[in-house]
Structure formats: structure tokens, C-alpha cells
TrEMBL record:
May be involved in fusion of retrograde transport vesicles derived from an endocytic compartment with the Golgi complex. Pfam families: Got1. PANTHER family: VESICLE TRANSPORT PROTEIN SFT2B, VESICLE TRANSPORT PROTEIN-RELATED. InterPro entries: Vesicle_transpt_Got1/SFT2 (IPR007305), Vesicle_transpt_SFT2 (IPR011691). This is Vesicle transport protein. One of its GO terms (cellular component) is endomembrane system. It comes from Atrichornis clamosus. One of its GO terms (biological process) is protein transport. The gene is Sft2d2. Belongs to the SFT2 family. Its main location: membrane. Keywords: Membrane, Protein transport, Transmembrane, Transmembrane helix, Transport. It comes from the Eukaryota.
Length: 109
């Protein structure tokens, strides 16, 4: 009977899938999202600064710079996923108005 009521009311014709349940179970509160953003962004800035400082080490400085600076950029970009969510972030990155900037940034990394 409950199933019939849901179908007739137009709410939900099917039972929630495992993916929908997983998404609902892993949703973060706003406070947790802000803390994750701050932590990830701070780690990204720290890696970028560390990479810039390691640039001056003889012989291995360029490799260390490339690794730490790339990790710092990825962490900083990833930090915004805490605020928006990964799917929304990727959709906005690949909008037609931002597509060229996104491609240039990804190729540069």
C-alpha cells in the first residue's frame, strides 16, 4: 500500500538505490566542510611554499619543486570540493565559459 501511495503521489517510484543511500550517509555538515576546506587549503599552501623553498637545493631541487608544487596545487583545488561537492565542482569547471581555463590549468599541472 505504501508503494502505491508513493507512486500515485509522484514522490518515488522506486526504492532508493545503494548509491543514493551512500550519498546520504556520507553527507557532511557545513562546519565539517569548512574545516576540511581550511585544512586542505592550508596543506596545499604549505606544499607550494615548501616546493618553492626546495627549489634551491642543488641537483634534486627541480624535481622536489615540481612534486611539492604540483601536490600543493592539487590540494588547493581539491579543497574547494569540500565546499561545493566533487560533482558540482567538476560540472562548474567544465562549463563552456570555464573550459579553456580548466584545460590550460590541467595541462600546466
Amino acid at each position: 500500500m505504501d508503494k502505491l501511495k508513493r507512486v500515485l503521489s509522484g514522490r518515488d517510484a522506486e526504492e532508493p538505490s545503494g548509491l543514493a543511500e551512500a550519498i546520504d550517509a556520507t553527507s557532511l555538515s557545513w562546519g565539517t566542510r569548512v574545516k576540511g576546506f581550511i585544512a586542505c587549503f592550508a596543506i596545499g599552501c604549505l606544499c607550494s611554499i615548501l616546493g618553492s623553498c626546495l627549489l634551491w637545493i642543488p641537483k634534486k631541487g627541480l624535481v622536489l619543486f615540481a612534486v611539492f608544487y604540483t601536490l600543493g596545487n592539487i590540494a588547493s583545488i581539491g579543497s574547494t570540493m569540500f565546499l561545493m561537492g566533487p560533482v558540482k565542482q567538476l560540472k562548474r569547471m567544465f562549463e563552456p565559459t570555464r573550459l579553456i581555463a580548466t584545460i590550460v590549468m590541467l595541462v600546466s599541472i
